Amino acid sequence: MARTTLTPLVRSTLNNLATDLQLLGQLDAARALFEDVLERKRRTLGDDHPSTLGSASNLAASLRAMGQLEQALAIDQEVLAYSQRVLGVDHPDTLDCANNLATDLRVLQRFEESQGTRR
User: Domain residues of the chain, as ranges?
Assistant: First the structure.
């Protein structure tokens, strides 16, 4: 896909397409599209924009579905840190990020670490 700036509607459509691909079991294609959308959002909106954080979470979920748990964990840790700073620790999106991180840690059997991420 050419590296041009996309409108918010096109970025959202591409994200939805990646989600559909993932649901259809086309995990490699979904991951590639999630990565592309994330890269574009980082470039146009910045690393800490809520929409960028949502796309990063989507990529982490895709990686988790592919069994690439350490990569998902690294992204979820970054997203949680940004979300806490930008949205606040009690924001619903931040709490979702903490839950995603706890899930990564639980699946990796890092139980003691996961307890600190949930309330």
Answer: 25-115
C-alpha to C-alpha distance for 15 and 64, rounded to whole angstroms: 17
Tens-digit pLDDT profile for residues 67-113: 999 999 999 999 999 999 999 999 999 999 999 999 999 999 887 77
> Is the pTM above the cut of 0.85?
yes
Asked if 69 and 106 count as a contact pair (C-beta separation under 8 A), the reply is: no
Q: How far is CA 55 from CA 33, 76, 98, in A?
A: 10, 11, 16
Helix 92-107 and helix 50-65: axis angle, to 10°?
A: 20
CATH code, 25-115: 1.25.40.10
